[in-house]
Specification:
The structure is a single chain. The chain contains 2 helices and no strands. By secondary structure, it is mainly alpha-helical. It has a domain at 3-39. The longest helix is centred in the middle third of the chain and has 21 residues, at 19-39. The mean pLDDT is 74.
Length: 63
């Protein structure tokens, strides 16, 4: 990729990022994306274990 092709993919909002820092965050983001892609589409997100449907407070707004 040329420098003009990369322009606009990542943007530093405040301060200055050295090329090494941009490379490091790009590697982390690509690793996260690869992990999600490897999980497959049929894997559902887990529900919160703390959410109980057994008891619902009488003043609850989840009615």
């Amino acid at each position: 990729m040329s420098a003009t092709a990369v322009e606009g993919v990542l943007r530093v909002e405040k301060g200055h990022a050295e090329p090494e820092e941009v490379a490091a965050i790009t590697a982390v983001l690509l690793a996260c994306a690869a992990t999600r892609a490897a999980a497959g589409p049929d894997e559902r997100p887990h529900k919160a274990g703390w959410r109980s449907r057994v008891f619902q407070a009488p003043h609850s707004w989840r009615g």
